[in-house]
Specification:
It is a single chain. Helices cover 77% and strands 0% of the residues. The protein is an all-alpha fold. It has one domain. It is rod-shaped and about 90 Å long. 7% of the residues are buried.
């Protein structure tokens, strides 16, 4: 499946970085929580579920029209439109499913990084003053 350029950029941001990390920049006001990532993941998952529910209702809604209007050109057009919408809704559903997982993964990874950094800083704070001086 091929995603739009915009979605590909979003997905690329969620992929693990293989290059060296950027140098540390002190920023005391920078804080991270997993809440926005988890919330966005939940929203994408809800959209995936609702899209699939809507797609599943589409064909039964067209059955009466198709049966009652056999031979009319409008029915052929409606059938083509139905197929097009089903294809699009499947693509949206699949993108949302992928995005829900990717956003959740980013939130987890950032949370794990925060925990690791917090533990490292706590170890520095609790080390005796002499030991901290010797490390320099």
């Amino acid at each position: 499946m091929r995603y739009s350029q915009g979605w590909q950029q979003v997905f690329a941001l969620s992929e693990p970085v293989t290059a060296a990390p950027p140098p540390f920049v002190e920023s005391p006001g920078l804080r991270h929580t997993t809440g926005p990532w988890t919330s966005a993941s939940g929203t994408a998952n809800t959209l995936r579920t609702n899209t699939e529910r809507s797609r599943a209702r589409l064909r039964p809604a067209h059955e009466g029209v198709m049966a009652g209007g056999r031979g009319l050109s409008a029915v052929a057009a409606a059938t083509a439109v139905l197929a097009s919408w089903e294809e699009r809704l499947v693509a949206v559903r699949d993108e949302c499913g992928y995005l829900a997982g990717a956003l959740n993964q980013v939130g987890r990874a950032m949370g794990e990084t925060d925990t690791t950094v917090r533990s490292g800083l706590q170890a520095i704070r609790t080390a005796p003053a002499v030991e901290r001086h010797e490390r320099r």
